[in-house]
Amino acid sequence: MRIVYMGTPDFAVPALKALKEAGHEILLAVSQPDRPVGRHMELKPTPVKEAALSLGIPVRQPEKATDPEFIEEIRALSPDVMVVAAYGKILRPQLLSIPKYGCINIHGSLLPRWRGAAPIQWSVIEGDEKTGNTIMYMAEGMDTGDILMQQEIPIEDEDTGGSLFDKLAGMSGPLIVEALDLLEAGALVPQKQDESKATYAPQLTKEMGELDLSMERRKVFDRIRGLYPWPGTFMKTGGKLLKIHRAAMPDRIEEDRLKKAADVPAGTFAAGKDRLYLKCGDGFLRLLTVQAEGKKAMDAADFLRGSRQALGEVKEV
Fold first, then answer.
1. Is the CB of residue 120 less than 8 Å from the CB of residue 159?
2. Can you tell me the distance from the alpha carbon of 199 to that of 197, in angstroms, rounded to the nearest whole number?
3. Which of 246, 234, 235 is nearest to 299 (CA)?
4. Are 9 and 35 contacting, i.e. CB atoms less than 8 angstroms apart?
5. CA within 20 to 30 Å of 189's CA: 130, 178, 280, 286, which one?
6. pLDDT tens digit string along 204-256?
7. With DSSP H G I counted as helix, E B as strand and the rest as coil, what are the percentages for the chain, rounded to 5?
8. What is the pLDDT of residue 58?
9. Spatial distance between the Cα atoms of 104 and 146, rounded to a whole number of angstroms
């Protein structure tokens, strides 16, 4: 098929490569404009732009996808289909109506759950047991179009926002190739989304990373996982920030040991046998990787040996 591909971040790269490898003709890759990053604010190409250029695919980066000149350029290409993956902007009907087979979106959730900007991370933050990718027709609303295909996977305790992002990105390539084959054969039946089950996944912000330790420990644990690696989670201790990169639920032996500190308030640290724990609203979490303000990240055992003073009073268990 003749394809115009629209995407911006790392999530959109595997599907682009899979479509190219499957023999589809990628007429154009469309990505958000390069943005300045880092201390020196140097322009950095988007991951999709880098991938497209490496594959010999021409690239366009319009400031606005509503630009009439851009829309006419797409119309002149006469694509069979447009494939969109995390492009970053809502597309208007003038663009959606151009391709013969319509505009197909790859979305990293099991719609209608988690429409919006950060579906992968919110599925972890909210403790979902499963997630997946949805292949859908694009509509003018935010992730409201008819569903064509879905593929689901379980969310494990070891998953983070970052690891799940990588899993779903990797799955998206074979899935979109299969979807286009079935679409061209007329073998896909669109399904309306159940609006009563819709939930929304807002953009992540740095402020979301501050932990509320009065919450149940499972909710704190899921938030630590979901916001890793960005924006990350943190708490304040001794007037300074402590970043918490990785945590785990204690096992049964640890739970027995921690009973002696059960009456301490939320936010209290406990330690024993090179292990570090943090009290939440209903019990302790084990901290695996932490980072004191101005220091590098380190595992809990090294932290206790070299930076224990940053924690203030620590309960021995």
1. no
2. 7
3. 246
4. no
5. 130
6. 999 999 999 999 999 999 999 999 999 999 999 988 999 999 999 999 999 99
7. 30, 30, 40
8. 98
9. 10
